[in-house]
Amino acid sequence: QVQLVQSGSELKKPGASVKISCKASGYTLTTYTMNWVRQAPGQGLEWMGWIYPNTGNPTYAQGFTGRFVFSLDTSVNAAYLQITSLKAEDTAVYYCARGTAFQHWGQGTLVTVSS
Amino acid sequence: IVLTQSPGTLSLSPGERVTLSCRASRGVSSDYLAWYQKKPGQAPRLLIYAASDRATGIPDRFSGSGSGTDFTLTISRLEPEDFAVYYCQQYGSSITFGQGTRLEIK
């Protein structure tokens, strides 16, 4: 069955970087777009953007340009989200999700940014 | 496309019927609208896609309707496990989520 398994929680200091992984199983990564969704504490779901697996071409939603980078490693069937120059307001749970209507989600990765 | 959900919060009792609203700032292409249920500490769960199609394993007390700019999610008879936050999402023109409707136990 399709599964998306994300890497574990991260505690980072402001200015640091973090890279979250999302390992897919039960299907080949190149057959569906991979999305990233953020939920900050007490807030709603925000779509961050997606990456097209067959081209590796990312699209970033407004507000997620510059410090956010989506990437893929098809050899291990995994997608990645890297965030650089972390700020306190990046504290959130980050989810990967497959496709367009998101039937399949990762379990979420909590990133806490605190000095 | 901006999605506006109403109401923000609903307080209801198990067994009641509820209708949640999602209004789009312009027409949603091909009625590409989905509904999700979100509980604390869990990933969102897809309930409805293409405005009215139930996702795999979703009980038939959940139904979606609407087209163009106005969409609704109806839960015909609330079960205790249905109390959660519900989000609509359009995926016809890029992707956006509504701000959510919190369904709480009265």
Structure description:
The complex is a heterodimer of chains A (115) and B (106). Chain A has strands at 3-6, 10-12, 18-25, 34-39, 45-52, 57-60, 68-73, 78-83, 92-98, 109-113. By secondary structure, chain A is an all-beta fold. The model of chain A has no long low-confidence stretch (mean pLDDT 96). The mean pLDDT of chain B is 97. The interface between A and B is medium-sized, with 19 and 22 residues.
| Protein structure class of chain B | mainly beta
Class inferred from helices and paired strands of chain A? mainly beta
Number of helical segments of chain A? 0
Low-confidence stretches of chain B: none
Overall morphology of chain A: globular
What's the N-to-C terminus distance of chain B? 33 Å
Q: Please give the count of helices of chain B.
A: 0
> Going across the major beta sheet of chain A, what is the strand order?
2-10-9-4-5-6
Provide the helix percentage of chain A.
under 10%
Low-pLDDT residue intervals, each spanning 5 or more residues of chain A: none
* Strand proportion of chain A: over 45%
Distance between the termini of chain A: 40 Å
Q: Compute the gyration radius of chain B: what is it?
A: 13 Å
Q: What order do the SSEs of chain A take from the amino end to the carboxyl end, as H and E?
A: EEEEEEEEEE
Biggest β-sheet description of chain A: 6 strands, mixed
Strand content of chain B: over 45%
Rounded average pLDDT of chain B: 97
- Rounded radius of gyration of chain A (Å): 13 Å
Shape of chain B: globular
What fraction, in percent, of the residue positions of chain B are helical?
under 10%
Can you give me a brief rundown of this structure?
The complex is a heterodimer of chains A (115) and B (106). Chain A is mainly beta.
